[in-house]
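Pipeline run #58 for the internal structure catalog. This entry was flagged by the ingest filter as a single-chain record with no existing model, so it goes straight to prediction. Upstream metadata was stripped on purpose; only the residue string is passed forward. Reviewer on rotation: M.T. Logging verbosity set to normal.
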Amino acid sequence: MTLEKIFNQENSIYETWRLCNADHGDLPAIEYFGNQITYKEMDEIIDVYARAFMAMLPDTTRSVTVSLLALPSAAFVFYALNKIGVRVNYVSHTVMSSDPKKYLETNDTEILVLLDIFFPSVSEGIKTTALKNIVVVSLADYVDKIADYVSAPIRALLKEATAVPKIKAALPQVNVLSLDDFLSIGRQSTETVPSRYTKGDSAVVLYTGGSTGIPKGVEKTNEEFLSLARVYNQNGDLDHKRGDRFLVVVPPNHPTGLVHNVIMPGFYGVTMVFQPIYDKTTFVSDLYHTKATFAIAAPSHYATFPLSDLPDGSLPHLRWAYCGGEPVSEEMARNVNKTMVRLGVQNPYLVVAYGMSEVGPVVFLTRHAPELLNKVGPPMRGALARIVDDNGHEVGNNVLGNIQLKTPCIMKGYYKQPELTKAFFTEDGYAKTLDMGICDDNGNYDILGRADDWVIGPDGSKVYLFYIERVVYKDTAVLECEVVGLEINGRKTPVVHIVLQPNFQGRKEEVIVRVHKLCQEFLTPNQMPQGYKIRDAFGTSPISQKRDLKTLALEYDGYFVVDGETVQSVNFQRGSIRSQAS
């Protein structure tokens, strides 16, 4: 049976996955630190998980909440629950730690599947809930042997004992099970669990939020996920082949991680190479050691490509390098592409994708246009996009405006938030992305930034901060940049935060003068930043795990201002433009 016929049938995600791989059970489905599990073995493991969940959760109208990294168990849990028709709530531990009672009880959860190292951040909050069961997963689960390339710190972490006894002592009112205890329940019976599927039922709720947003609970059905698969298959936009190797670095708690690192590769018989603990500074070497054919990661990870010391031609196995999550500058894309040519990547250019969890993690995916650099290209066939002004009227080409999208996989809604759901959609069914962009004369979209990413300039007009960021990125010394509005004298004023390339460490005053001159050349006086700050790295939001813009907007010390060729160190404060030089 062809993939097109399989995708057009009315089935659950699990049943579609099973049909796609019915004749390919001996192919490796998962690789984890060198350990392999075939598709046939994976299906058998899914059955064990499903039987255990059925025994613990006879009422399948209740849900299971999952908080895991990119682990084999994350895939097994998803497919097992989908097979028996139970909704999965994906909540990252950082989201849950902000209010465990909210994220567990709102979702009618009786079972929490939790990574052991997350427990300290959620333990106190769980005590206030009516949670009945916790299944504790460890990084050491499914690791029989460890690949040679695994670093010493990770080896040590994998050997640490599970935290189950400690969790049991801290939560005596909760039934706490190790993964082995949980699986022993499923092994008590050898019967195959029949699939349960009802059209229109929810498959998942994904709690996602941007750098400053609040997670809202995006609810999706089986049909919405499969409609996305149909779009990809008809467009040929994934270019997945059986035997390909997909480096999984984004956890299923995130929409991109669930769709593109678990569900879609499984449909195409791809080997998912799980890498749950990884540092962006090792990203290029991870691609080398795992022999990945594909990867999806954030721009900050690809920004490390030019820093790689791998020999020329080291990545001939890498076919496509996908990037998303935030806008990409031309300078960064150009530098990454140059490095990919040196490393022998088959298609040596960064594929900048764009979408959102509500309408599909990827709506734009242009793999055959390296000349676009940082642009996302046209929407995929089957998806619609338009740019409108603040009043909802469509604008012409090359005009900045608000991006709206319409796809077959638009969400069912924000879970238990009908008013928020209603406000998200236009009357004709488009989604309000709250992102700003431009469409050129050839139909190629350029995603610039968030619609609320602006301050009021001295002349009273809007100053979009992403324009300033694009200018700053023109300097080759800049590795990462973020421009935020700092409240000074009752008005938000743009200030620039910069992380330097390694070879420019110790030259911050020189770089600040260069960046300031670039801003004078490409920006109007109304757009000029009022200060520059050099930092070692960007912190991440405890909610979204993206750059923490809220914290940046509260930093008033450690800036520099430029007067001609002179750089002065200053601290800002709310009451005046600057304080005495530090």
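catalog note: The two ends are 71 Å apart (CA to CA).
catalog note: The chain is about 30% helix and 25% strand.
status: ready for reviewer M.T.
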